Amino acid sequence: MPMYDYSCGGCGDFAALQPLAQWRDPVACPQCGALSGRIIGGAPAISALSSAVNRARAVNERSANEPRSSRSGHGMNCGCCAGGQTRGKTRTSTDGAKSFAGARPWMISH
C-alpha cells in the first residue's frame, strides 16, 4: 500500500497508508479523529514491496553507476589465464623456413 500525505486543520500534516483504490478518500487524523483531505506533499511511497523487488531495485541502482561484467576472467582466448601456452600450427625449421603442421600445403588460409 502506498503512503500518502494528509493535512488536518487542527493538528497539521501527517502520513497514512491507504489502498490504491481509495486514494481520493479522506482519512481520520491519528490525533483528533477528524476527516482530513489528501495533500500533494510528494510522490506516494511504496512501503510494502517484497524483498525480491527491493533487491532487484538495489542491484539496478548499483549497476547504473558501477557496471560489472558477468563473465569471469578476461574473456575468450585470454593468454594470461589459459594455464599454459598452446603451440600453434606454424613450425619454423633451423634454416628459417616455415611449415604448417597438419595443414594442406596447397590451400591458402584466410
Automatic annotation (TrEMBL):
The species this protein was found in: Achromobacter piechaudii
SMART domains found in the cross-reference section: CxxC_CXXC_SSSS
Pfam families per record: Zn_ribbon_8
Segments passing through the bilayer: none
Lineage: Bacteria, Pseudomonadati, Pseudomonadota, Betaproteobacteria, Burkholderiales
Region (Disordered): 85-110
Full protein name: Putative regulatory protein FmdB zinc ribbon domain-containing protein
InterPro entries assigned: Regulatory_FmdB_Zinc_ribbon
Domain Putative regulatory protein FmdB zinc ribbon: 1-41
